[in-house]
Amino acid sequence: MKIQYAMTICLCLTFATLFTAGCKDTTVRGTSGISLTIQPPQTAVVIKRGEMQSLEVALVRSGFSDAVKVDLIQLPAGVTAQKASLNVETDKATYILTANPAADLVANHQAKLIATGPGGMKATQYVTITVTE
Q1: Looking at residue 52, what is its pLDDT?
Q2: Distance of CA 14 to the CA centre of its chain
Q3: H or E stretch covering 95
Q4: Which residues of the chain have a pLDDT value below 50?
Q5: CA-to-CA separations, 55 to 5, 46, 90, in angstroms, rounded
Q6: pLDDT of residue 23
Q7: Based on CB atoms within 10 Å of each CB, which residue in 13, 59, 72, 104 is the most buried?
């Protein structure tokens, strides 16, 4: 009985982690007091097969104004970004996602965002993507 209870708690914690991933900011600190924060969308991106949807990611720089490279990887099968890698000089990165008509139907898929700033500092975050009919 205790093992079942422990396994139930572990599963609940795993699901809670998966479904809240992408809701929090990630900040990395570099040398000389600089920092880079990546802020994913507060809600999941929902895209229908055969349609396009935008994905906006906010960036906060502290102590530098250089461009930040933002990569979007591990998209669901059949979903592509017009440009998977962006050099961003503003405070947001905007991706245009396209789901082909045969894209996998997925719920709460975790795609990975990697923002790279000066000196190679990297902030990694996840965004939730759901593909529907």
Answers
A1: 98
A2: 18
A3: strand 92-99
A4: 1-22
A5: 39, 10, 15
A6: 54
A7: 72
